[in-house]
Write a structure and sequence with these properties.
Strands 2-3-11-6-9-1-12 form a 7-stranded antiparallel β-sheet. By secondary structure, it is α+β, with helices and mostly antiparallel strands. The protein has helices at about 15-30, 45-60, 95-105, 200-205, 215-220; strands at about 1-5, 35, 70-75, 90, 105, 110-115, 125-130, 145, 155-160, 160-165, 180-190, 225-230, 245, 275-280. About 15% of the residues lie in helices and about 25% in strands.
Length: about 280
């Protein structure tokens, strides 16, 4: 499902600039993921506040327990790199990486979300397939959503689904090739925190160098989520268990291996006219 966050649709507005500034600062210090849950820390950053807003917006659609919370992180892909392949994010499943690596088990988030903070022409689109880990590895991708990285868009999908940002020139018209950094804010909602994921350290929060401005707080408290109609197969289904399964395929614990069956192909007559398009082959 695709939402629009009106307060973040203009890349040059003060709130969006403040969040983007923290995002760039964070990735320059660490690639780790962090956790927010029942309440925000004193002096919480804009990134933590945004993660908290996203958690509270979506948790009511799930059978959340007292331990429910949100894992969040930032990804930045530099458009100045001449090698487009380096701008891609391989197709993968979001899961508890520590559990997968050490115990060969996969635990998936209830909900995965992507919030786009890029300026115009800020990178390649996100691909979300209808394929889950339980399906045979060789099962080809026949149904997927293409979501353009438009600032202020907020993509929500079932946390068990295969997704990524593969490099495919056909996904982007030549005149709209990436010219700005692709900045995305990722928030996954879990029933319990993945192993090793903790709150943002105070040292990193302090390194944001005073980006927090209380004058922006009123607009942040009123952050709205406007819904667009996207095919419901990608809407998270209510699940009461923790979705822990044994990894059946050697080599798939930890990071996901590339697989030829995960290739994304477009119909010859495909033309993306919307921010989010459903493709069925």
């Amino acid at each position: 499902m695709l939402y629009r966050l009106p307060e973040l649709v203009i890349p040059s507005n003060k709130l969006c600039k403040a969040i983007r500034k923290e995002a760039l600062s964070l990735v320059s210090q660490t690639k780790d993921t962090f956790w927010v849950a029942g309440r925000l820390a004193t002096g919480a950053s804009w990134l933590e506040r945004l993660a908290f807003c996203i958690l509270n917006r979506h948790r009511h659609s799930l059978p959340c327990s007292e331990t429910c919370g949100a894992e969040w992180w930032v990804q930045v892909k530099d458009s100045s790199d001449c090698n487009d392949v380096l701008k891609e994010i391989d197709m993968h499943y979001d899961k508890d990486e520590t559990l997968a690596t050490h115990f060969n088990l996969a635990s998936f988030p209830s909900i995965s979300t992507v919030t786009y903070l890029s300026e115009e022409n800020g990178g390649f689109p996100t691909i979300v397939s209808s394929k889950t880990y339980e399906e045979p590895l060789e099962t080809a991708i026949k149904r997927f959503v293409i979501s353009s990285p438009r600032c202020g868009n907020h993509l929500v999908f079932d946390g068990r689904l295969l997704h990524g940002v593969p490099f495919r020139p056909a996904f982007v018209e030549e005149e709209k090739r990436p010219t700005q950094a692709r900045i995305t804010f990722l928030v996954n909602i879990w029933q319990t925190a993945p192993a090793g994921v903790t709150a943002l350290p105070e040292t990193i929060r302090e390194a944001f160098n005073g980006s927090l401005n209380d004058k922006l707080s009123p607009s942040f408290r009123k952050l709205r989520f406007h819904t667009n109609n996207i095919d419901t197969v990608f809407v998270p289904k209510q699940r009461t268990n923790h979705n822990v399964i044994r990894l059946p395929i050697t080599g798939q614990s930890g990071s996901d291996d590339k697989n030829d069956s995960w290739s994304i192909h477009l119909p010859s007559d495909f033309s993306q006219s919307n921010d989010c398009s459903l493709v069925e082959l």
